[in-house]
Design brief:
Elements: H1 7-12, H2 16-53, H3 57-67, H4 80-89, H5 93-108, H6 111-137, E1 153-156, E2 159-162, H7 165-170
Antiparallel strand pairs: 1-2
Length: 171
């Protein structure tokens, strides 16, 4: 088997089941990427006039990328070895780094910072609403006390599963 082939196709093999699983994953990834691209495009189109008037097009683009989890880690100066280590050790390290960059955008205090604040506030409100609905659907009382170890978690069997790790991490 070709060692240059990506790991997942090598693990799944060439069976019909393996090809089906891999094909389904690739279709999901393509649809996920498409939705992110459309969100960035439409958001960019909405804020472009304001960004142009304030001469902050690049900064506003950075805010949009940070808010949608697509910060360019290479442009941030993160080396290949560090990115590989983070990808091995953490779940979605680029998304986490983007969230912290969004907080940094807020601290700048300019019009891009105002947009970053609106984005983070919206993400927090909608995320909390979604969590609350999931908890209620499962017949559970939402855990909304940030001092509790069960904050924004739900019971699944004998385990507690948390949602919104990035929002919780930067809170």
């Amino acid at each position: 088997m070709d060692e240059r082939q990506p790991l997942l196709p090598r693990l799944l093999g060439q069976s019909a089941v393996g090809r089906g699983v891999l094909g389904g994953m690739q279709r999901f990834q393509a649809s996920f990427d498409y939705m992110g691209d459309m969100a960035r495009f439409n958001w960019g189109a909405a804020v472009l006039p304001t960004a142009k008037r304030s001469n902050m097009v690049r900064q506003m683009a950075d805010v949009i990328n940070h808010a949608t989890g697509s910060a360019d880690t290479t442009a941030m100066g993160i080396g290949v070895a560090q990115r590989a280590t983070e990808n091995f050790m953490f779940f979605a390290p680029q998304y986490l780094r983007s969230a912290f960059a969004l907080v940094g955008d807020i601290a700048k205090g300019n019009i891009a910072g105002q947009e970053a604040f609106r984005a983070l506030a919206s993400l927090s409100v909608v995320g909390t609403m979604m969590y609350t609905k999931v908890a209620q659907t499962l017949g559970q009382e939402p855990e909304l006390d940030p001092a509790s170890g069960n904050f924004m978690t739900v019971r699944i069997g004998n385990d507690r599963v948390g949602v919104g790790a990035v929002r919780l991490g930067i809170a």
